[in-house]
Amino acid sequence: MSTVLDFSPLFRSSVGFDRMLNALENARRVASIDNWPPYDIVKTGEDEYRITMAVAGFTEDELTITQEQNMLMVAGHKSGESEENGQYLHRGIAGRAFQRRFELADHVKVVGAGLVNGLLTVELKREIPEEMKPRRIAIATGETLPRVEARQAEPEKLAA
Fold first, then answer.
1. Exposed, middle or buried: residue 74 (CB in 10 Å: 0-12, 13-18, 19+)?
2. How far is it, in rounded angstroms, from Cα 37 to Cα 55?
3. Phi-psi bin for 86: left (phi > 0), alpha (psi -120 to 50), beta?
4. Structural domain includes residue 147
5. 51: which strand partners?
6. Confidence grade of residue 57 (pLDDT, cut at 50, 70, 90)
7. Where is the SHSP domain (predicted)?
8. Distance CA 61, CA 158 (A)
9. Is residue 134 part of a domain?
10. Which residue range is the domain that position 103 belongs to?
11. Angle, alpha carbons 94-96-102 (nearest 5°)
12. Taking the CB of the first residue and of the last residue of the chain, which one, N or C, has fewer CB atoms within 10 A?
C-alpha cells in the first residue's frame, strides 16, 4: 500500500524550501530502486559523512566519481573481459556497469575517495562558508549607538 503525500500546502506557506520539497516529490516518484552495488551511508562526525560501496572486481581505472553542484555520481564500467581462463558455467560475481547518484545538501563536498578490498569509500564534508555561519552582534548601550552613514551623492552629479 502506497501513501500519496501532497506537498502543495508546504509550497504555499514556505519560502526557500522548494529544492527540498522537489527532492521529496522526486523521491516519491521513483519507480524501481536498483540495489546494486550495495552501499552504506554513515555520519562520521558533526558535518562529516562516508559512503561505502561494494564494488568487488572493479579497479580504480574502471570507476568514476563525479560531483556536479549538488549531485554525486559514482559509475563503474568494466573494461573488455577475456575468457582466456575458460568458459563460465555460472557467473555469480556481478561485473555489470552501474551508475549510482546521490543528492547532496548545500555545501557538501567530496574530500577524498579510496578503494580497498573491493570497497569504494567516498568521504564527504559539509563546509559552510564564513558569511553563512551564525555571528554574534554587539549591542551598544547609552549614547554610543553606532550610526550607519548614508552615502552622499557627489555634488557634480546632482548639478547635471
1. buried
2. 6
3. left
4. no
5. 41, 122
6. confident
7. 30-142
8. 66
9. no
10. 38-79+95-129
11. 100
12. N
Q: Which three cell numbers stand for residue 40?
A: 552504506
Q: CA geometry: angle at 35 spanning 30 and 38, to 5°?
A: 140
CA distance 53 to 36: 9
The CATH code of the domain that includes 115 is 2.60.40.790
Flag whether 43 is in a domain. Answer: yes
pLDDT, tens digit, 9 for 90 and up, residues 74-124: 999 987 665 556 787 887 777 788 999 998 888 899 999 999 999 999 999
Whole-model pTM over 0.85 = no
Residue 99 lies in a domain: yes
Quick: pLDDT tens for 126-155: 988 888 778 888 887 776 666 655 555 555
